[in-house]
Write a sequence for this structure.
């Protein structure tokens, strides 16, 4: 799956669209997504809400894990928030760990515009026999 295919397929991800997440680039086992921080992404402490960061990481994870054309669904995900951020753009870069079989593992780094790590996410997917629609 290339970037254009990923954008077409994942245009149907209504929640990612609602939050403002965009695919920067995608390839086999890889995705880089971005989120321009807006006021709606901030929590009561005036930093990006953890759920917004998780959603960005989870979306990049979904694109990367489905990039082989086989439907992959998350069975586990974990995130560690390493620093707060209140403005700018966040990027989530998802990469495949090893050669995927029925179970696939992915690492995702969420960074700011300067490349500083904001969060680390890892996820596991189960690959169904169904093709990605």
């Amino acid at each position: 799956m290339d970037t254009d295919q990923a954008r077409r397929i994942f245009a149907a991800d209504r929640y990612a669209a609602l939050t403002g997440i965009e695919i920067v680039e995608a390839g086999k086992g890889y995705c880089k997504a971005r989120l321009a921080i807006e006021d709606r992404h901030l929590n009561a402490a005036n930093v990006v809400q953890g759920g917004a960061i998780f959603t960005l990481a989870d979306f990049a994870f979904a694109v990367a894990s489905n990039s082989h054309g086989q439907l992959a669904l998350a069975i586990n995900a974990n995130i560690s928030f390493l620093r707060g951020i209140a403005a700018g753009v966040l990027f989530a870069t998802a990469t495949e760990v090893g050669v995927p079989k029925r179970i696939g593992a992915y690492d995702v780094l969420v960074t700011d515009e300067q490349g500083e790590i904001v969060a680390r996410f890892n996820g596991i997917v189960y690959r169904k026999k169904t093709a990605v629609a």
About this structure: The helical segments are 3-10, 14-19, 50-65. The first strand starts at residue 22 and ends at 27. The beta strands are 22-27, 30-36, 70-81, 89-97, 103-111, 117-131. The chain has a mean pLDDT of 96.
